[in-house]
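User: Sequence recovery, please. Input:
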């Protein structure tokens, strides 16, 4: 004969109650002032991809200082710029004050993004 635990006894005493929610209606207001100005100063990470490669784990473990990985893009091809996983622009890698930078060549439209802009 199996004994019941305290948890099983507590579960058998729990009663579920149904709840009715009223339907929400659209008011047309987008919050205080109806503006998205508050979002304009939010920082978002931009990732720049200059190419990619695939190597076996054995080769990966052999990498060290001075190792070179060849990427799939030629030097003439533009870099891809991503917001999260969505490509939104292309550009050229440049140097500004001793730091890498990207000079935007093209901002992609929705059709460009849907035609292969996601990774």
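Assistant: Recovered sequence (119 residues):
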């Amino acid at each position: 004969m199996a004994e019941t635990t305290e948890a099983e006894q507590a579960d058998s005493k729990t009663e579920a109650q149904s709840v009715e929610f009223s339907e929400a209606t659209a008011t047309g207001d987008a919050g205080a002032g109806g503006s998205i100005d508050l979002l304009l100063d939010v920082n978002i990470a931009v990732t720049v991809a200059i190419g990619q490669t695939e190597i076996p784990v054995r080769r990966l473990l052999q990498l060290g200082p001075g190792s070179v990985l060849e990427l799939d893009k030629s030097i003439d091809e533009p870099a891809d710029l991503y917001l999260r996983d969505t490509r939104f622009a292309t550009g050229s890698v440049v140097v500004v004050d001793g730091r890498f930078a990207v000079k935007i060549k093209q901002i992609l439209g929705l059709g460009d993004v849907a035609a292969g802009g996601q990774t």
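The chain has a mean pLDDT of 83.
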